[in-house]
Amino acid sequence: MWKLDIAKGLIRKYDNADGLNIETFGFGASGRNGGWCMGTAHGVETLLARPESRGSGLALARAMQATVDEIGQVTKTLDIDCHFKKGGNLTVATQAFHVPQLQAELQHLRELGFSEDDYAWLPAGEAQQRVQTQQNFGALFTPHCAAIHPARLVRGLAASLAARGVECVASTRVTEIKSGLVKTDRGEVRAKNILRATEGYTGTIKGQQRRVLPIYSMMVATEPLPSAVWQQIGLSNRETFGDPRRVVIYGQRTQDDRLAFGGRAGYFYGSKIKHRIALDDAGPRAVAATLRQLFPVLNDYQITHGWGGPLGVNRHWRPCVSFDAKTGIGAAGGYVGEGVAAANLAARILADLVLNRATEITQLPWVNDHARGWEIEPIRYFGAKTLQFCAERADAQEARLGKPAGLWATVFDAVVD
Q1: Which of 261, 234, 238, 242 is nearest to 98 (CA)?
Q2: Which of 25, 93, 141, 361 would disulfide-bridge 137, Cβ 3.0–4.6 Å?
């Protein structure tokens, strides 16, 4: 049953008849992502590439790197068992032509002032010892990334807040936000300050339909793998891994010895939100096929779990944090699927803005970096599908020919810009 406590402005959830409560903490992207706690975020590279924004980009990059350790320390202090392991990240050259591309990226990072302790090139032999993908010509390694169990993290944080007397309310859908007022499907809540952190679900709120684009990401996980298989795969330090392809992939070794692996999947017309993605859906099946291509040894083992969910993308493809003291409304989001660490930094920025504290992080370029709204339908649908189509064609061409794609890559870059 539900109870609306108007006096305290709280909506409380009690157990229903069958005891099930699906849409609880971690139901959204915070619990369904790939479990990378990354020391970077989408858009940082663009800031670093432009001389006029390089200084602010470097400040943001360093703040993101420090955030990985911040999360590790907080989870330790609060005794949150989220399987945090800072094993770093490997961007694997799964094609020979990736090598000069990744080495050029490393050279650029060196010129910006990042050291061997931040980014390092691993030759093929050493890279293969770290992760034995079917093809591995070397890898760009950074220690600024941790593997985590994301649902355990968010639920641990909620439990910690509840233990301190903070009311945490699950299973309540917000339908509209106004100054001083939040309307939900269970009643209204009034507050001086209202902070929106709804990410890929933002479009379900009245008046917010074009603010954030929900792009889907799909995940699969294998059965627990025996040690003999892990000796063939690697990831002994629970490194996270991906490669330079355009349709982003990401994987990690979980604490219980599964291989969890994901990939971007696209956009549904009208920003439709699917509340459940099953293992036998097309998205997880495609991700599973990619995983088996990377590690043929997995053909003899079961993929036991598959799921998916929407991530949030602002029109300028980078996060934004804002707070209007006059209306009392603030927001943070648009992490483009890289939100575990970015959301932590954004939340700390938002807290300082609400408290009117001028700090180093309130000077970061995310602050009030508002994006214009996404195009109306069907324009945004055709744009999103064009981007996905070109990315898939370019990746397929490169995998087939073993050299950089031509036309499809050019069109993809033009659409992204």
Answers
A1: 242
A2: 93
Asked if residue 389 belongs to a domain, the reply is: yes
Cβ count within 10 A of residue 140: 23
Q: In a 3-state reduction of DSSP, which class is residue 233? A: helix
| Cα(82)–Cα(102) distance, integer angstroms | 31
Q: What sign has the CA pseudo-torsion 62, 149, 165, 322?
A: positive
Instruction: Classify residue 367 by its DSSP letter.
Output: B
H-assigned helices in 164-262: 227-233
Whether 49 maps to a domain, the answer reads no
> How many CB atoms lie under 10 A from the CB of residue 5?
12
326 phi and psi angles, rounded to 5 deg: -70, -45
Is the previous residue joined to 378 through a cis bond, with omega within 30 degrees of 0? Answer: yes
Q: What is the Cα–Cα distance from 348 to 338, expressed in whole angstroms?
A: 17
Q: Is 387 among the domain residues?
A: yes
Domain count, the chain: 1
Q: Tens of pLDDT along the chain (417 residues)? A: 222 222 223 333 333 333 334 678 888 877 788 999 999 999 999 999 999 999 999 999 999 999 999 999 999 999 999 999 999 999 999 999 999 999 999 999 999 999 999 999 999 999 999 999 999 999 999 999 999 999 999 999 999 999 999 988 888 899 999 999 999 999 999 999 999 999 999 999 999 999 999 999 999 999 999 999 999 999 999 999 999 999 999 999 999 999 999 998 889 999 999 878 888 899 999 999 999 999 999 999 999 999 999 999 999 999 999 999 999 999 999 999 999 999 999 999 999 999 999 999 999 999 999 999 999 999 999 999 999 999 999 999 999 999 999 888 888 887 776
Question: Which two structure tokens, joined as six digits, stand for 126?
Answer: 């050493």
Task: Please list the helix, strand and coil fractions of the chain in percent, rounded to the nearest 5, in that order.
Answer: 40, 25, 40
| Tokens 């929900």 belong to residue | 214
Domain that holds residue 385: 379-416
If you search the block for the tokens 């995310």, which residue do you land on?
366
Amino acid letter for position 295: F
Place of tokens 């504290």: 357
**Alpha-helix residue ranges (DSSP H) falling in 227-378:** 227-233, 282-294, 339-354
**140 has which bridge partners?**
91, 121
- DSSP letter for 371, please: P
In Å, how far from its chain's centre is CA 340?
Answer: 6
Q: Is pTM beyond 0.70 here?
A: yes
Strands 240-242 and 89-92: parallel
